[in-house]
Amino acid sequence: MAPTATSEEPKAIVPVPTKAVHQQDHVQIKAKTPLQAISHGICLTGVPSFPDFASKRQWQLEHMAAAFRHWSGEGYVEGMSGHISVRDPEYHDAFWTNPLGLHFGLLRASDMILLNFKGEAIGGNRSRPANSAGFLIHGAVHKARPDVHAICHTHSVYGKAWSVFGKPLEMLTQDACKFYGSAQSVYNNHGGVVLGEEEGIKIAQALGKGKGCILRNHGLLTVGETVDEAAWLFTSMEKSCRVQLVAEGAAREGVEKVLIKDEEAKFNYDAESDPEFAVHHSLAKKLSISTAADGLLPVPDTEALHLGGELANNLKNPDRSLRSHSQLPIHPVHVSTAALHCSEGNAWIVVNGVVWDVTGFAAKHPGGVEVIQEHFGKDGTEAYNSIHGPGLISKFLGPEKRIGELEPNSSGILQRKTENQKPKSSLPDLGSIITLSQFEAVAEQLMIDRTWGYVAGATEDSISHRANYDWYQRILFRPRILKKVKTVDMSVSVLGQRYDLPFFIAPTSSVKLSHPDGELAQARASVACGVPAMVPTMGSYSVQEIVSVLPPGYPFFLQLYMYSDRSDARKFLQAAHKLKPRGILFTVDLPVLSKREVIKRQQLGSGSQSEREIAPPPTNTSLDENIGWEDIAWIRECCPDVPIFLKGIQCAADARRAYEHGCAGIYLSNHGGRALDTAVPAILTLLEMHASCPELLGKMEIFIDGGIRRGRDILKAMCLGASAVLAGRPFLYALSYGEDGVKKAFKILSDELRMAMQLVGITSLDQAHPGLLNTADIDRFVYAGDAHPWARKVERSKL
């Protein structure tokens, strides 16, 4: 609105270099010529720039509260009358204003109400109504003047007194020159309290393109690009009215008034229309005095020359009084307010009745960007609860991102139904389950397509996924007889700790897709069966929540994905270290997200956007694509004395290198066929270690997963030197029955393992060895090392 007083200068004049941006308050300062610098004295800051709408909105509301404090100090208070409004920076057909009946001296940013042009309160503090007359005036002006961002109107004493004459201000002083010519107007048709829309429209018409309007027998109204400008102009207009009244009294006694000449008045108008020259500084002194007098803000140590800087200094104080009522409860958030925050730069989501600021979080979300973006400004409770535990969001975002609670019994936000399972009325009795394949069949019937696609699906053509199972069937036993196998010991020792069984639950993400208790049920079942718990980074529940269901000191292994933000990764590891994990399973086989075609087909085949929501796998938006061998030392630095395993070893050479880097163990895995398709099954990698580095089998712990469906599969892996065997999908399927289902899966596998040990002729897993197996059918596929004549790098010509 107020044009910047800059004109094109001759090229010979070099602008005085000034600091372009204050890092502290993000204020942009224009360069000035020497002449401008001399005439203005000092280059003052202008309107700040902001990284997003939320930051600008907060700045506007804080300055709005500051302007009300100034009004209170100046005595511009008259009962419940008077109002300031500020257009919302993002939604231009809505504006913020003060609530009815709250004293100007007590107003804070959190008190303001957001109104649309229909007069509906769509956001902010809805505990009090807005002033209806104020809405009619401000709404009409905001509609008529898109260039206006702020409006000030109240019934100050001198403004009211001068308004009775129905005349414009004369150019008596420099203050009055701000309203030179068409910058001011007079509305002569005021008929009392504004009760109709028509009256507001007439006031807007009377204002025209000006900066201030004298409402006859009523008061003053000023407008500006910012609330600072509008409030500063109001103060100037009120002062000018006072001077005008005093001058009129003197003139009646015969003292001649001398008006400022037109050319001088216009020069003053142009000079003071530059926001950098005056708009942001005249209110500063009064603001600091009025707020300090109330004991709300300290008087700054330095002489600030603009309102923005003054507020920035004041708001550094921990009291932050202009921002919110620290002594009062937070106002509930209405659904319409949350609905406004629906863009990348300004995003809120409602989860379980609490409103969270998720601005900038979508790109970091381990489950992908889309599922967060689809819920901007909406209630994401159903989608969240289908995957995550109730406390995970607070742990991930932090309490500072908690906006407040949703207004009770409110409605209007689209709630999207996110069911992971069909009704369980037809669930077979758990006692009828005797194989893991039955659990799989039940889960397939129970889970809806998108959930089943995520849990059971794999990469591309699922070749590695199928091979994981098939290749165990190609290994045959060579049983021994007459071994006295009545008593069998299935326990194993890992890192010096004895466990009752040699198989554990593999760490997987989003376990809540199978059952509301998710990892909590798996952890409790692990304790009941005497095996360590496996705690994933990307679980439905936080690491702390999962560990909390374990007995004090109970052993658990932490599966680790490396966050791309290393500061976040360090905080995560340091927090986990305090929980004393027995080992860290550092996942290294999925630096980028693989192509999950089953999931993609389901997305494309869905009839609506809401039906396209899928269970989230980890994505490379939040995970580090540049992990390297040096990260082992970095993890060790974060978690000293915690043994490190590399999860996702797929060749003997990497197994050897892991040992050389001081890893306590390795975890042979192709990610259940969910990483690179046609990657070798883990059992083949174990055979490759026998061929290439057999010495490692006795020097480090070896975990293995992939394709385990029977107790006999576990025994085959143990015969080939595995320290422990892990299974993922079978326990996810069993979790359809909750904790009892997981325990039943443990029992099925342990019964089968016991029987396999007895039938092969051993009573302890210490007796398991490769001689009990015939691997001839797959031996030809074992990589025998780089000594093969064809195993050399091909030198390609460089054209």
TrEMBL record:
Record's keyword terms, sorted: Oxidoreductase
Q: Which SMART domains match?
A: Aldolase_II, Cyt-b5
The protein's superkingdom reads Eukaryota
Required cofactor(s)? FMN
Q: Extract the InterPro entries matched here.
A: Aldolase_II/adducin_N (IPR001303), Aldolase_II/adducin_N_sf (IPR036409), Aldolase_TIM (IPR013785), Cyt_B5-like_heme/steroid-bd (IPR001199), Cyt_B5-like_heme/steroid_sf (IPR036400), FMN-dep_DH (IPR000262), FMN_HAD (IPR037396)
Q: Which SUPFAM superfamilies match?
A: AraD/HMP-PK domain-like, Cytochrome b5-like heme/steroid binding domain, FMN-linked oxidoreductases
Annotated region (Disordered) at 407-426
Presence of keyword Oxidoreductase? yes
A Pfam family assignment: Cyt-b5
Q: Which Gene3D superfamilies match?
A: Aldolase class I, Class II aldolase/adducin N-terminal domain, Cytochrome b5-like heme/steroid binding domain
What the entry lists under PROSITE patterns is as follows:
CYTOCHROME_B5_2, FMN_HYDROXY_ACID_DH_2
Q: Which NCBIfam families match?
A: PRK06208.1
Name under which the protein is recorded? Cytochrome b5 heme-binding domain-containing protein
In which organism is this protein found?
Answer: Scytalidium lignicola (Hyphomycete)
